Amino acid sequence: MRKSVVTALLASAITLPIALYSAASVSAPADGGTVAIVGATIFDGTGAAPAPGTVLIQDGRITAVGADVKVPRGARVINAKGKALLPGFFDVHTHWTAGGSPGTFPQIANAYVAAGVTTVNDFNEAPEAFAPLRAWLGQLNAPHVRFAARISTPGGHGADWADQATTIWVNTPAAGKAAIESLVPYQPDLVKIFSDGWRYGVSPDNTSMDEWTLKATVEAAHVQNWPILTHTVTVDRGLVAARAGVDSLAHGLQDRPITAEEVAAIKQSGMAMAPTLAVYDPYKRGDVKADDPRLKQTFRKFGYALGNVKALFDAGVPIALGTDAGMPGTPHGPSTLHEMELLVQAGLTPSQALVAGTQTSAKIMRIDADRGTITVGKRADIVLIDGTPWTDIKDVYKVSQVLIDGKLAFGAGAPALPAANKTDRLPSISVPALIDDFERDDRRSSIDTLRVDTPDGGIDRSVEITQTVPRDEGGKALSLSARMAVKEAAYAGFAIPLSRGSITPAKISGYKGLRFELKGDGAYTVRLNGLDGVWEAQVQGGAGWAAVEVPFSQFKPVERRGKTGPAFTGDGITQVEFGGSRGPGKRMWLQIDNVRFY
């Protein structure tokens, strides 16, 4: 499938739910009532041959499956004659990022539901965001979303842009174990480790995680029953992951063809792979020529990835479905369906690709007792399709109806979308005037949010330490000390979220500006970060403490990607940030206290 088809399907994934929900033709069942899906050909996700039958559902669970199942009196009947019935699809690798397509939380949910994707793993979030996002999902018509905690090495992939509240940096076994222990209060559903520093052959590998650290981190996570997926894209590092006990690779191996001996080693380890072919598909941005010199390396690596998928699958290595959706050219929803097409292109049969996207994905995530097949007792996450995708994989795009927990979530008969699905954010909240007086010792603000460091991005990042320190006058202040990276526009700073995980925006238009006390060695930047843009003002620090007031009128929109942001309105604000820049390799320090709106 080429770009025109993906674009059209993405558009339908966003627009169809509203149109079809408004055309409801079947009333919703009362709570506890039985739903009967009759007339479908059932592909149960185990690899068994499809067969006609009836599926009964009660209280969100499958209670009966088969050709001889009787429909009880009073059951709500869904006539699925001529349709295929399958388990809902499971994408084990997605990023619900603002830079994706779509880029807002409710619209991403809409796109997945419309594509028949009923469970996803999200690799994008800081652990602080898990609780507010789980609460938000409770308001939405959405797939089941499982949140991954992130661990990398200093400067490693995934740590080259994120703060350590989002991606923990480790490079020893002790640090790996400590990282897992620090995540226990957040209860992630899984852990992603960025263990392979190879940047697709365009940068040197100087950030890969050593085998001892990886193994210790995996073992600590398994004590918590958290599956481990790793960002691993080279054969040699794949073997390291296998020896370390990783549950599944989160990408395909694409630097060279894998040998029979290497395949056997991975098979023996029990490790699986979710190859994310969709994100690497060289055709995803449109029709291209395979002999284009700019794309020769891309085609070569993609060919290795396809061949290695087939070699591993033929040896019995479990192949799951993952896409890396949210990355450029990899839209949420349609990319999951496209991944199954690409698995077929790699050499799997359509039936095998469907099993990868259902049972196998659930199994490697250790939740196959709950979902992944059409089996009595399992969660009633079901997709109905107008076609026979086990013979023609392209039929996966013909999604007719989707049930999540036994309730119609998409298609004819489904209720109207909740209001929350039609917005792109949570309602703004009010925040108190005092944001942080830095009196707490747990890195949390006066409004109980976790402060985050905001150094520049890249493999070489500015090194900074933020901590509370005593003031001579009494009380405490926040101290930032930094050594700038050796590059232009090096930056170090910290941000105070206005809500937990910076998920719920704040409306601060009732205030006039920002007041704080500052001590420093030169010029600094103050930013108000929001859902619609970033606004900043410049301030000057000196050797002694000084009270600073910055009216909102002095905050100017920051230019991003060549575009100037909107004017400041005081709504949709998520963070207050302080930081500064110095020359390459230079030092910077500042102290801040009593940050409040006035």
From TrEMBL:
The keyword Magnesium does not apply. Residues 1-30 form the signal peptide. Residues 485-579 form the NADH:ubiquinone oxidoreductase intermediate-associated protein domain. It holds the Pfam family Amidohydro_1. Keywords: Hydrolase, Signal. Residues 85-408 form the Amidohydrolase-related domain. One of its GO terms (molecular function) is hydrolase activity, acting on carbon-nitrogen (but not peptide) bonds. It comes from the Bacteria. PANTHER family: ALPHA-D-RIBOSE 1-METHYLPHOSPHONATE 5-TRIPHOSPHATE DIPHOSPHATASE. This is Imidazolonepropionase-like amidohydrolase. It comes from Sphingobium scionense. The lineage of its organism: Bacteria, Pseudomonadati, Pseudomonadota, Alphaproteobacteria, Sphingomonadales.
